[in-house]
Specification:
This is TRAP-type C4-dicarboxylate transport system, substrate-binding protein. Keywords: Signal. The chain has 14 helices and 14 strands. The strands form two sheets. Strands 1, 2, 3, 4, 5, 6, 7, 8, 9, 12, 13 and 14 form a twelve-stranded mixed beta sheet that branches. It folds into two domains: 149 residues, D-Maltodextrin-Binding Protein, domain 2 (3-Layer(aba) Sandwich); 174 residues, D-Maltodextrin-Binding Protein, domain 2 (3-Layer(aba) Sandwich), CATH 3.40.190.120. It is α/β, with parallel strands linked by helices.
C-alpha cells in the first residue's frame, strides 16, 4: 500500500518554490477558470476582504489544491482554496512545512465523495471495503483532487480501502471519463470522483442518465478523520432535482469534504517580510472568520440554495451508517470465509 500511495502522491503536480504568480502577493488561488472555486466561491471572499479594507486581493486561477498549497508556502500572504482532505493528506506528509499554514474557514460548502458502479450486488461502502483487494477502481487523473482524496481514504483505512491492489486502479482524464467507463464496464468496476452536488452539473447529470448505483461513502474510519482536531469529512444529505433528468427530487447521502480557505500564519508572513506584517495577517484571519457563512456563499441564488439546503446528518445518524458499513463488511468477509 505504501508503494501505491507513493506513486499516487508522486504524480501530484508540485510547483517549485517561487512559482506562484509574481504579479501579486495578494492572490486568492483557486482552480481552473471555469471551476467552482474560481467562479463561485472566490468572489465572495474577495468582496469580504475588500469590505474589511484588505484591498488588492484577486481571484487567481491555478491547477487546484496542491498548487494552491505550494503557492502559499512560497508566498505566505497569499490565500488559497483547498479540499480539506487533500490539505490534510499533504499536511500528514510534511508537518513542519504545514506549521506555516492555517485553515481560516471550512464551513461554507462541502464537496461530495461519489462512488458509482453497475454492480447490483454492491450497495454499501462496507461491501466495497471487504472486497477492496478484488474490485477494479476507476479514478480521475493522477494528481487530481479526487485521486488525492482516494489516497487519503486508503491511508486512513489500511484494513479496508488501503488493501486496494495497485494493478486494480485505473486513472482516466476526468470524472466524466470515469462515469462513462463505469457505465460500460463488464467487470463490476467501481468509479470514484469528488463533485459538488449540483443537479445541473454535467457529471451529476451524467451519473443519473447512466442509471449508476451510488454507494454512500461512509465508514467509521471516515468519521474519525481529523486535521488539527477538526473533522476532515462530514456526512450530508443532498437533494438533487426536480426538473430535467431528475424528474422528481432525489435525496442522496454521502460523505463530503469541506471547502477550506487557508493562508500563511502570522509568523510565516512576518518571516517572509513582504505583503504585510504579522498583525496584518492576524487581523485578516480574524476578519474572514467573523464573516457570516451566508455571506460567503456563491452569489448565484440557485447554487447558494443548494449548498445551504444540504443537511448535515446528526452524529447518531452518521454513526448508524458507519455501523451498517461495519456489518456489511463483516457479512461479506463471513461469506468469503475470512
Amino acid at each position: 500500500m505504501r508503494r501505491l500511495l507513493a506513486a499516487i502522491l508522486a504524480a501530484t503536480p508540485l510547483l517549485a518554490p517561487g512559482a506562484a504568480p509574481a504579479q501579486s502577493l495578494r492572490a486568492i488561488n483557486t482552480g481552473g477558470p471555469q471551476g467552482a472555486y474560481h467562479s463561485l466561491f472566490c468572489p465572495p471572499v474577495a468582496a469580504a476582504l475588500q469590505q474589511a479594507y484588505f484591498t488588492g486581493y484577486a481571484c487567481t486561477p491555478s491547477r487546484g489544491t496542491v498548487e494552491n498549497i505550494e503557492r502559499s508556502l512560497a508566498t505566505p500572504p497569499m490565500i488559497g482554496f483547498a479540499q480539506l482532505d487533500v490539505f490534510a493528506l499533504e499536511a500528514s506528509r510534511r508537518p513542519a512545512e504545514f506549521a506555516n499554514l492555517v485553515v481560516i474557514r471550512q464551513d461554507v460548502a462541502c464537496e461530495g465523495l461519489w462512488m458509482v458502479t453497475r454492480n447490483e450486488s454492491l450497495s454499501n461502502y462496507g461491501e466495497v471495503l471487504a472486497l477492496a483487494r478484488r474490485i477494479p477502481f476507476i479514478l480521475p487523473a493522477q494528481g487530481s483532487g479526487a485521486a488525492a482524496s482516494f489516497a487519503f481514504l486508503m491511508q486512513g483505512d489500511p484494513e479496508g480501502l488501503g488493501r486496494v491492489a495497485p494493478g486494480n486502479i485505473r486513472h482516466l482524464a476526468d470524472a466524466t471519463a470515469v462515469i462513462n467507463a463505469v457505465a460500460t464496464a463488464s467487470d463490476g468496476a467501481v468509479g470514484f470522483f469528488v463533485q459538488f452536488a449540483d443537479p445541473q452539473n454535467a457529471n451529476i447529470r451524467l451519473m443519473a442518465e447512466k442509471n449508476l448505483r451510488i454507494i454512500p461513502v461512509v465508514s467509521r474510519e471516515i468519521l474519525r478523520s481529523r486535521v488539527a482536531e477538526q473533522s476532515v469529512y462530514e456526512v450530508r444529505t443532498f437533494t438533487l432535482g426536480g426538473g430535467g433528468i431528475f424528474a422528481r427530487p432525489r435525496e442522496l447521502t454521502t460523505a463530503c469534504t469541506p471547502v477550506a480557505v487557508f493562508g500563511g500564519t502570522p509568523e510565516a508572513v512576518a518571516r517572509f517580510g513582504k505583503g504585510g506584517t504579522a498583525d496584518d495577517q492576524r487581523e485578516l484571519i480574524e476578519r474572514v472568520r467573523a464573516v457570516p457563512a451566508a455571506r460567503l456563499l456563491p452569489q448565484e441564488d440557485r447554487v447558494a440554495r443548494l449548498i445551504s439546503g444540504a443537511r448535515r446528518l446528526s452524529a447518531q445518524a452518521a454513526e448508524e451508517m458507519a455501523n451498517a458499513a461495519d456489518a456489511a463488511k463483516r457479512a461479506v468477509q463471513s461469506r468469503m470465509g475470512n
